[in-house]
């Protein structure tokens, strides 16, 4: 053993006990890291915090006091904003809820079925159609909105919720199809074979075997669809022209009027109200969202 240690001594470097090589203690490194993360979090959340504070200020004090310190408390902004438009703001929240629920159901049903077909079925031109499906992700909505508007106008669907919901029933969101395909490909095919031995066909395999295991991917699709649809302004502005059909983003735009003084306090108050459903949805589904993204390979 002594001879072996003597032979390895030139190879194994001696430990440097100097503090410079040792680095900072783990406690100090952790404190610095968490402090930096907290500062970055405050920087990113500053616009939201400013909007919340501005919803509690008078119109004259909103842009005169750009900080987060409240000199006066204007709680009536919420009451005035709720009843400032042609209908109570709850009416617009209900319209958005109808559109969101329809889009979520459409994406969950159509995208999961399309994903199962791409992941498990064998048909002619499968790779070509899958590549075309992925290519649609690169198409911006501004390229499609004109032909879609002409088609929906000929069908008489303008100023209804149908142009916003029906396309979701046709698996038009390629991102969610791709996400579910990646998830299904990660499931062992032995489950399909065992079900097929028991006499199950593709519909039963999809409903009884694959779909229950897709809960993380379905939850991720639900949360993203909820957030994107709830915040969608462009499509809803194009198709909804009757104030009674307005959703939350379009209704918030109605607070800004070029002919009269804009009620900024009321608008910020209703903006805070419109953020609450998104915050609650993300808070409830955060665990499934992280799990769904981590298990589908989209990192």
Q: What does this protein look like?
A:
The chain is mostly helical and 299 residues long. The chain folds into two domains: 20-80; 84-295, MetI-like fold. 69% of the residues lie in helices and 0% in strands. The protein has 16 helices and no strands. The protein has helices spanning 2-8, 19-22, 26-54, 59-62, 76-82, 89-120, 126-135, 141-155, 162-165, 174-185, 190-197, 202-213, 215-231, 234-239, 248-253, 264-295. The longest helix has 32 residues, at 89-120. It is globular. The model is unreliable at 15-21 (pLDDT under 50).
What's the SSE blueprint?
Blueprint: H1 2-8, H2 19-22, H3 26-54, H4 59-62, H5 76-82, H6 89-120, H7 126-135, H8 141-155, H9 162-165, H10 174-185, H11 190-197, H12 202-213, H13 215-231, H14 234-239, H15 248-253, H16 264-295
Helix pairs in contact: 5-16, 6-10, 6-13, 11-12, 13-16
Short overview:
By secondary structure, the protein is mainly α. Helices cover 69% and strands 0% of the residues. The chain contains 16 helices and no strands.
Outline, from the CA principal axes? globular
Q: In total, how many beta strands?
A: 0
Q: So how many helices?
A: 16
Number of domains: 2
Briefly note the structural class of the backbone: mainly alpha
The CATH superfamily of the largest domain bears the name: MetI-like
Question: Sheet with the most strands?
Answer: none
Into which percentage range does the β-strand content fall?
Answer: under 5%
Quick tags:
MetI-like fold, 2 domains, single chain, 69% helix, 16 helices, mainly alpha, globular, 299 residues
